Amino acid sequence: MFGISYDVWKSICEMYFSLSSRTCESYLQWYPFTNLSNIDKEEIKSREFFDKYIDLGGFVLFPEMMHHSENFIQKADGSFRNATLISPILFLVLQAMGKEISNRYIVERPSDVEAFYAGNYGKSRAKYKSDYDRFYKIVNTYADECQYFIKTDIKSFYQNINVNKLVKRIDYGCNKKGQKVSQLNLLLLKELLLYCGDGDYPLVENSMASSYLSTVIYLDEIDTRLYKFIKEKVNGIFDLHMVRYVDDLYILFSSPMNENQLNRAYNDILRNYSSILKEYGLALNTSKCLYKSSMSVNDELKRSLYDEYVNGVKHELGELFKGKMNSFLKGVYSTLDKGITYKDYIELIDSNFSSNDIELTPMAVYNYFIYENQTELIKKENIEELSKILEKDNSFLALDTKRLTIMVMRSRNGQLIKEMLSHLFNRHRIGLWNSFDTSIAVNYLIQRNFMHGDLIATIQKEIPKLYSYYECFCKKSFLLQLKKERKWRRYIIGVGKDKIALILYFMYLCEQNRYNHFADYAYYKSFFDRMSADMAYCSGLDKKPNYNRYYEKKRLKELYSKNENSACIIKRAHELRNHDPLAHASAELINNNDSSEKLKKIEKDLDSLIDDYSQRHCNEWLESTN
User: What angle do CA 571, 574, 575 make, to 5 degrees?
Assistant: First the structure.
């Protein structure tokens, strides 16, 4: 259905299932993988599982497997990203589709233009670190050879990607030397991206597919055109190299031009780049663009590594920044009276965790003390200082919910943790709960393997979809959702080999997600008719599925005759289909103000007919398929 081969499915499963539990426990999107036993993993990557649920898209019939909801991830400035949280199966399918595209896409970038993204399909690397380090080393290598560099940044990159333009580019890059990706698969890829992103390009936590498609493909022509412009239209530039990591682009070059000439060349390059980006719905973040001598490249690009060699001697950050955590926390406490802002918070990090002796950003050093080495966090004086901060203003945690929640958790101080939780429960009780509280709660629960019933109950009341994600995927193996004896399993018995029925149902879900009720009803009614023909065949009423007859009222009424409500439901369903502007020229639903409710009601009624019929015939179907 989605153009995924078994070899690709297996390789994607193996890549993500090989991640350590500690790694997966750090991210909500990856957390469900920690609940899979080795037997579960073998089953999911097996040929039998692939044939039953992935190849033809049978997983789309299980509502849990089509889960998508909001994820609560903060940006560097403290605001929230427009991120989505998707089911583990949807996540794996999305990654597999990305790999299939990567196997077929022919990159146009010249050899002097390199692009890196978060992960690596070719090397089967799910994490970003190795490829970011490679990006860092290449930029520094070119900086040694060149005189200058230009650094650029794209504003709100992911949320401004145009999915239609992306799919057009995939079509061009994959099919210009012969058809390698069908138009159907391009359509389904587009719909899957929009579904996962809730109508936008999907920003999914740790999604290699999202990073690859946006970087390598969407920016391919943009990078090629910019390189050609600089090479051919900007005089006085040589040794030109361009290196990209997602939306950050470094342009390195040498030139005999004086300062005024360089300024004009810099402006010409930015204006051309900005004009090209505009054609793709993107814009430069000019406040983050600059040019400097290549000797200064490390002021703009610093490795996110936790240990550094300086003059051949390895420096331990714990020794180099001894006492700085206490200084940082005291600075926070003294700033609370005036109302600490995110800017104040970052300035305190910069002033306490910077050093001219190492090539590390202050934030990277700060991360080290939170994520890697908690020696400073568990010191008595630091626990006391943190306790004073939370006692005075617990909302401090909202500035940086993930790091600060982990800071509290890894202090190993029960009283501190109790104060944080008390603050959350109080905000819930008085009706002040917001996204920052959700983020704090999620990060706490991840650190505690979701072992806090009262906090989970609060999540259930405040964010039901997030609770559903926990219930289906974080509490136990998500494989269990595919093994329940329920109507969705019976669906798959009826249409498990009918690719067209599954596509119709998937398109129905996509249109429903967009609130396109005319379109979702048209797809659902077609699915219902086709599903009815499949069930009649499975029940032995027809020698083969007769799709040309099961759109007729008479035939459908005969099939569902044992249900006393069927005649009325089928009659009304046909009337609405004949009034649907996407199915009939009368288009009477356009003038019907309450048509959306009627359409949703009839879809539910038709669904009940399928469910009732499948329950009556479930046993004989199971016997015939065994």
Answer: 85
Cα angle for residues 149, 210, 219 (degrees, 5° grid): 40
User: What single string gives the DSSP state of each residue in 464-517?
Assistant: HHHHHHIIIIISS-GGGGGS--SHHHHHHHHHTT-HHHHHHHHHHHHHHHTT-H
| Cα distances (Å, whole numbers) of residue 409 to 284, 338, 406, 419, 447 | 39, 27, 5, 11, 8
pTM of the model: 0.89
Q: Is the predicted pLDDT of residue 210 greater than 90, yes or no?
A: yes
Residue 91 tokens, joined: 């996540």
Q: What is the largest CA-CA distance in the chain?
A: 88
575 contacts: CB under 8 Å, gap ≥ 6: none
Averaged pLDDT for residues 499-506:
91
CA distances from 263 to 253, 259, 269 (A): 14, 6, 10
Amino acid at site 471: E
Q: Distance of alpha carbon 128 from its chain centroid, rounded?
A: 14
Structure tokens at 47: 């040929």
Identify the pLDDT of residue 612.
84
Q: What Å distances lie between residue 415 and 79, 332, 385, CA to CA? A: 29, 20, 13
Helices (H), 251-341: 259-279, 297-300, 317-320, 324-335
Angle between the N-to-C axes of helices 414-429 and 380-392, in degrees from 0 to 180, rounded to the nearest 10: 10
